[in-house]
Amino acid sequence: MSDLIELKAAARKQAFARRKEAFAAGQGWACQHLTAALMRFGPAPLAGYMPIRTEIDPRRVMEGHSGPVGVPVILGPGRGLIFRKWTAQTPLIEGEYGAAIPQDGPEITPRVLIVPLVAFDRRGYRLGYGGGFYDRTLEALRSKGPTTAIGYAFSAQEIDEVPIEPTDQPLDLIVTENGPIWPRGA
Question: Where on this chain does ATP bind (predicted)?
Fold first, then answer.
């Protein structure tokens, strides 16, 4: 297990450096590609995220979604996420890890999630920050019905193979500034 922890830590360090460089270069066509990918889901409840550090920014796409949109709220270590309803006018406060969250508001249950990440591979696996929040959340949502996880990243964040463990939940689609990547040929 410690070997896997070390592998993930090394992969994160390299991916953060690549993401920082890509962030400085700008998002390019990423928003247009993400908007196009979301069209197949219509007004399905969507979860996005409020970007931190050098994460690619999905807010413009979230604002244009025709259905309800939520953003994640961390409830604590070892727990899944909840999603509070969000619009561009929603009052925000600082949440865990510096991410902005709605000050209050109703929860939504997303069927489609735009998922932040540190690195990804062509198999559809993602490397996050190490808290397991999205893995627990995706597992719970998928146990209750169809749920689509879309990784949103810069193409520079792609690595050959993300080190995985049995609890890691795969992405259904990855969208970068270069277009969509369908891991399982969907």
Answer: 8-12, 126-134
